[in-house]
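step 4 of 6: structure.
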Amino acid sequence: MIGRMLSVELLKIRRKLLWMLAALGPVGVIGLQAVNYGLRYDYLMKLYGDSPWEGLLQQVGSLMLPALFIGLALVASMSAGIEHQAGAWKQLLALPVTRLQVFGGKVMLSLLLLLASCTLLLLLTLGMGLLLGFDPQVPWAEIVRQSYLPYLAALPFIALQSWLSIVMANQALPLTVGTLGMVLSMFSLLMPAWMPWGWPDRAVRSADALQAAGSGLALGVLVLLIGYAHFARKDVS
Amino acid sequence: MKMMKQASGSWLLETKGLTKKLGGKAVVRDVDLRIGEGDIYGFLGPNGAGKTTTIRMLLGLAKPTRGGVTVFGKSLAANRMEILRHVGSLVEYPSYYGHLTGTENLEVIRRLLDVPKERIAEALSIVRLEKDAGRAVKGYSLGMKQRLGIAAALLGNPRLLILDEPTNGLDPAGIQEMRELIKSLPGQRGVTILLSSHLLSEVELMATKVGIIRSGSLIYQDSIASLKARTAGRIRFSVSEPEDAWKRLLELGFEAERDQSRLTVGGAADRTVASIVAELVRRGHSVYRVEEERSSLESVFLEMTGTGGSL
């Protein structure tokens, strides 16, 4: 059933540019880094001395987080927006599917698209490092960690944005919340450890990256459960 | 409220005391719908009377504040999935993914219903959309979108079809087409249909049974024939020398009324009409027209719903 819901969601985003949006984030981040390295290659190479890969990851990480925050809000909004636009909630929920399957299908679509973004970023980072002639001894663990831990740490926001975008026909509020989240996340260094807006950043650079990702996963599941409980009780108009 | 003789539990769809309160106000109050197998049930009421809210509850889209829905002899609350597998619906306006083609729109629903792929072609042919099935739906006319909505509702081979205002916004040709389509379904496919409308004339031509809702309460429910019987068809005669003719009819004991050149007789059976005509002709009157007064059916509705013009 999970597979069927996902296949339906993927069918619905045909010709909808959602895949392009998912690619736009990583391409933009790496594009900007290409400019960055093009302009100040010597400076950056000297700065990071004998660990150029680490330097590249640090540079990419600083741009990736805002892109992730705004990207997840846009993806959640667009995937729910397909139903709002079509006036299809009533049709969907009058079919023999459970509300959990419908809610889950939407969340899975967003998770899948964002996972594709993170994977694309990983590949592009790798490609850029190799093109710049960095040591072919690629620090795999670091690259994989940086690509996917922030994704896990951002799960509460994916859950929140999915929930808001699904239950509200007007996407202005969900997108405002998403944008504010992105702005807030930029001040992560000033945040106490318990604030979730700082977790994706902590998942990139701090020693307790795993803990940040784990917290994100746990809180994300909780927000999903709350969102689902709300959606399940809601009357559909 | 008169009820048809049918044992309780044998209805295809039945509601008991169905009530929905929104913000403390009951928009649907103690509605007891009874729909038998093979009926085309016309669900009538003015706009805002609670038709769509009732239909939402029949489909599990909204939860009743009180009361329950039984479909195919089972409680909807406890058997939602099983029941919805055999129910097709089109609520208010058609749902469609504009960027997808007609076929892709049906494929979305087909995957959720898990029915064979051939059903798509069958449903498209029932609503005669085969030719346009490959086009993006955003380019469809409203009538075509509505037909696609019907095709989607038919995809799972439903036993019960719930159509909320299916002719809303269609042009006369579209309305005619939709009417023919709906009328043909029970005969061909054994489908029971619940059809809502705010227009009596609309439902009158299709329905075998009607329910009338006003301000959230069901105020009438019976066969369309009994409703017509309540109007006790008045027959109107246009004749020459109406004054003379009228007096003659009164002499003969007919309760005729005169309005200028027209005479009307209430509750006249076929035989009575025939003998009145024969008498008038024998007396040398020219009989120009003999008509049944159809407006009286509308007036019964207007009395019931307390609205003018449309229901």
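step 5 of 6: annotate
 - Residues 31 and 124 of chain A are 10 Å apart (CA to CA).
 - The first helix of chain A runs from residue 2 to 12.
step 6 of 6: archive
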